Amino acid sequence: MHEHDVEAHGQAHEAPATPAPRAADAPDLGLLRVLRDDGSADPATDPGLSPHVLLRAYREMKRVRLIDTRMMLLQRQGRIHFAGECRGQEATPIATGLVLERDDWVFPALRESAIMLVRGFPLKSYIAQYFGNAGDVLKGRQMPSHMSGRAVNQVAWSSCMATQLPHAVGAAWAAKMRKDRSVVVGFVGDGGTSEPDFHNALNFAGVFKVPCVLVCQNNHWAISVPAAKQTASPTFAVKGRAYGVPSVRVDGNDVLAVHRVVGDAVARARSGGGPTFIEAVTYRMGAHSSSDDPTRYRSQEEVDTWAQRDPIVRLRRHLVHRGLLDEAEEGALEDGLMAEIGAAIQEVEALGPPARETLFDDVYAELPWHLAEQRAEVLGNRPYGGSQGGGGH
Description:
This protein is of the alpha/beta class. The chain has two domains: 6-349, 3-Layer(aba) Sandwich (Rossmann fold), CATH 3.40.50.970; 356-393, no CATH class. Helices cover 38% and strands 8% of the residues. The strands form two sheets. The protein has a five-stranded parallel beta sheet, sandwiched between helices. A two-stranded antiparallel sheet has the order 4-5. The longest helix has 26 residues, at 51-76. It is globular and about 75 Å long. The termini are far apart. Belongs to the BCKDHA family.
């Protein structure tokens, strides 16, 4: 285990007078890591992932980084309206996606959409959500970067912070009552921990011991509010103590460490052990969204410091260290991903808007008479019942 520096990796408080606790002694105050600076893995914490899983994780992390880069460019060109990238935070969603089983559920926040791709959601449908066109399974009804898909059990979320956490805990409670083995994972940012929903969710999860994993991606900035002004607690993970929820603090830029921590938490939940709260310490290297200018509230020096801890660079260093990746393979991978993403964008952007009659889909299990009349009118047919007034109402 490695001791950690609260100043460097947690909230920007003054350094404590006593040595920081190790993750083994206080997992909600320590910082669990696997990857070392030279690319090797600490054998005491290494989850022992196979070469196949490591290479899959790298491919998925590279893919979402390239997608984000393209989407931000498209937004600047006026071809889509909004984008929220997860640059610098790829390790947590990718590791989570690799851990989960088919029947598990995900309640994301802004920077976890890529879990869908890891779990098999089609790339074209994913990109179509940015455009909100006929290829979008959400039928253009949701804000871009708010992806969801029933095919992979990923639930839509709201820009109102932390509202998804009570939903995640409620879904986990339902799973427990039904005695199925599904686990629910809910995400929140460091800013969302100041919302009542966060506390309600942790309290309910702790009391009813539901099979859920709640993950806080502490990226140090709630838009322009730094973590030091968000809480006086030494870590966000320690907040779980008040609710009786076991909590762990992990290096969120170390995909092996995140895989281990989330994997252990999911296994614990699935076996009936109850909830876990995880703080993944990471950093948002880009803007909060395409509507944000981070140069107004943080220094380039800070960004440059965290860029040296880029999760993709760290995993690449590990793969090279183990002889699993070389320069030629890296180039071929990037070329292949760029071609895949480019082809998907070209095909999706050529699609038209959602059909007008889809306005009436997914609203009621059985369409009521007044909407049936309106749908018929949209389709250019006479209202059912043979008269403008409808049939017998």
